[in-house]
Amino acid sequence: MKLAIMQPYFLPYLGYWQLIAAVDKFVVYDDVNFIKNGWINRNRILCNGNVSYLTIPLYQASPNKLIYQVEFSSQVDWRKKISKSLQAAYGRAPEYKNVSSLFEAILYYEYADISDFLVNQITVLCDFMKLNTRIQNTSKVYQNHHLRGQERVIDICRAEAADTYINPFGGRELYNSDEFSCAGIDLKFLSSIPTPYQQKASEFVPGLSIVDILMNNKPEQVRDMLRNYQLVPGGI
Description:
Blueprint: E1 2-6, H1 14-22, E2 25-28, E3 42-47, E4 50-55, E5 58-59, E6 71-72, H2 78-90, H3 96-107, H4 114-128, E7 134-137, H5 138-141, H6 149-159, E8 164-168, H7 177-182, E9 186-192, H8 210-216, H9 219-226, E10 229-232
Parallel strand pairs: 1-2, 1-8, 2-7, 8-9
Antiparallel strand pairs: 3-4, 5-6, 9-10
Helix pairs in contact: 2-3, 3-8
């Protein structure tokens, strides 16, 4: 059983979805401390050939709060603003008519909390991209808040009977491969292979929100991109 654990991001980049595609179960790490200026409430798109941000405003966000405890602002009609930004940026994109309603449904979902909103968008987009990975958030299941870092990851793997743990390539120095091996878990890191596609920009801009990919590529092209990665050993 392959498992991955990641914080919830707003409309994340391709590598996030490749990680979901690579595992049997994807655990959303929503009961760790919120990090300001991260990707939990924002992401990048292209507008008129330039990088622009889609941002959900927050209410009294603080690193002292856990992710699921942070609230979206109720004073700003951010849904309408983001919807207009998407139309302005991608109204003439090849797949706009086919996917614009998908993002409208995500934006206007009646959520219970920020984690509920972010997990719902993952579920909706997984369904659209035909990913059958099971999704679970940590705040709903695991009673191991006293553990930290690698120790907690290994504990979650044990709870799920996972024999393989896959992490983004950038985090290979966070984990000790020997500790995972002692726990009977194979530690792998996902290295995304660059996949340029047609954009409305003078030069290809990598690492944008999944929005840019879905607006510019047919579903079968997206599925090919989801498989364009390598799993490599690593750790310290």
